[in-house]
Amino acid sequence: MIAVTTFKDKPVALFGLGGSGLATARALVAGGAKVIAWDDNPDSVAKATAEGIATADLRGIDWSVQAAFVLSPGVPLTHPKPHWSVDLARAAGVEIIGDVELFVRERRALAPDCPFIAITGTNGKSTTTALIAHILRSSGRDTQLGGNIGTAILTLDPPKSERYFVVECSSYQIDLAPTLNPTAGILLNLTPDHLDRHGTMQHYADIKERLVAGSRTAVIGVDDSFCALIADRVERAGVKVRRISKRVVVADGLYAEGSRIIEAHGGATSLLVDLDGIQTLKGSHNAQNAAAAIAACLAVGVSKDEIRAGLRSFPGLKHRMQPVGRRTQVVFVNDSKATNADAAAPALSSYDRIYWIAGGLPKEGGIVSLAPLFPRIVKAYLIGEAAPAFAATLGEAVPYEISGTLEKAVAHAAADAGADTTPSAVMLSPACASFDQFKNFEVRGDAFVGHVASLDGVTMLVDLD
Hints:
The protein is an alpha/beta fold. It has helices spanning 19-30, 42-50, 84-92, 99-110, 125-138, 171-175, 195-198, 201-213, 225-236, 284-299, 304-312, 341-349, 387-394, 406-418, 441-453; strands at residues 11-15, 34-38, 68-71, 96-97, 116-120, 142-147, 163-168, 184-187, 217-221, 240-245, 253-257, 260-265, 268-274, 322-327, 330-334, 354-359, 377-383, 400-404, 424-428, 459-460. It has three domains: 5-97, Rossmann fold; 100-312, UDP-N-acetylmuramoyl-L-alanine:D-glutamate ligase (3-Layer(aba) Sandwich), CATH 3.40.1190.10; 322-460, Mur ligase, C-terminal domain (Protein-Tyrosine Phosphatase, Chain A), CATH 3.90.190. It is built from 15 helices and 20 strands. The model has no long low-confidence stretch (mean pLDDT 95). Residues 119-297 form the Mur ligase central domain. Keywords: ATP-binding, Cell cycle, Cell division, Cell shape, Cell wall biogenesis/degradation, Cytoplasm, Ligase, Nucleotide-binding, Peptidoglycan synthesis.
C-alpha cells in the first residue's frame, strides 16, 4: 500500500467506497489523514465503518475545513450532471481530486524521479500497459502495474528510486488528476466513448490531452485527427513528442510497415523489431500498441535489446486475442473481451482462416459491420441469445451452426479445424455481452480455456487457474 502522507493530519472528505474508493480511504488513513467517507450504497458504508474508517453523510459535514475532496472515478464529475457531493465541494471551494492525483503527489514527495509511465486512449490501453510492464519486468526492473487495468493504484508499493510505475488511466481518472506528470505519457487514439460522462467529443479529447501535456516525453498516436492535433499542440508547448502510427510514415517517432516497427529520427530510419511470429501481437492494432510501448520504454532508459526480448516473450493480455492452446496447425484464441462487433474486428482481422465462436447477449447493430471480414471465416459456431440474429446476418455468406453452448461450440470447431489441412484459428470472439450464460467476460473466457484444455492433443500455452 502507498500510505498517503501528503494529507497527514488534514481533514479529507471522500465519496465512493467501492473497490478503488475503499483502497483510497485505507491509504489516506494509513498516511494520517482525518478521513470522513460516504457512499450512496449502505453496504459499502457499513464495510468501511467495520474497518474503522470514519463515515458520515457528507451533506452534514463542515465543508469549510476540508483540505480536499477525493472522488471515486466512477462518480459523475460533470456529466450528465455533477453528483450532489461534487456540488457541495464546489460550493465550498474545496479541491476535487482522485486516487491517481494522490499517487502523483506522493511520488513527488517521496521519489520524484522514479520512472512513471501513464497510458490512456480509447482502445488498446490495457494491452499496451501490460506489454510495457512485461518488458520492464522481464528486463529485471522493479515494476508496479496498476490503475484502470484492475489494480487500484494506491495498493501498489510506495514510490522509490529505480521502482518503475506503469499505470493505465481512464478519462475519469485523468479528470481528477490536475497535476499528472508522468515520465512518459501515452495517448494511443481517440474515438467517441463515454460521451454520457463527458458531454462532447471535444471535452473527452481535452481530458485525455492532459495526460500527455504534463509528460516529460509524450508518445502520441497520430492516426486520428484529434490525436494529431493534440501532438502538434503539446509539441508547441515545449513537450518532447514521439509520434506513432500504424498507417503512415512519421518523421520523428515510430511507425508500422506491416509487422515491422520502424524508428524515424532526424531524417534517418531503422528497423527496431519485426513482430512477425509473435502470436500475442498480431494485427495492425497491436503494431500500434507495440510502437507505443517501445517508445515509452526507450524514454525511461530500457535498451533496444531488452525491449526486443520482452516483445518476443509477451504472453498477451488475458481474454484479449490471447493464444491459449495449440494442436498441430490449429491455434485456439481467447478473445472473450470482444463484447461488441467493433471489439471483435481486430481479432478477426488478424487471422486468415477462422473457426469463429460468436454470440451471447447481443449488442445494438449485431455483427453487420463485420461483413467485410466474413471471407476470413471458414465456419461460425453460434451460442447464446444472439444465435438466431447472427445466423440471419451470416446468411449464405458464411457456413454456420447454432451450437447453443460454448462447450459444444469448442468441441465442434476443434473437430472441424482439425480436419483442415491449412493453418487456422479456433477463436472465441463473441461480439456480444456474456450475461445470458456467464457472469462476465472473464468467466466466459476462463470457460473457453477450460474446454480447450479438455481436448485431446492440445498443448496449452497458458497456465490453468
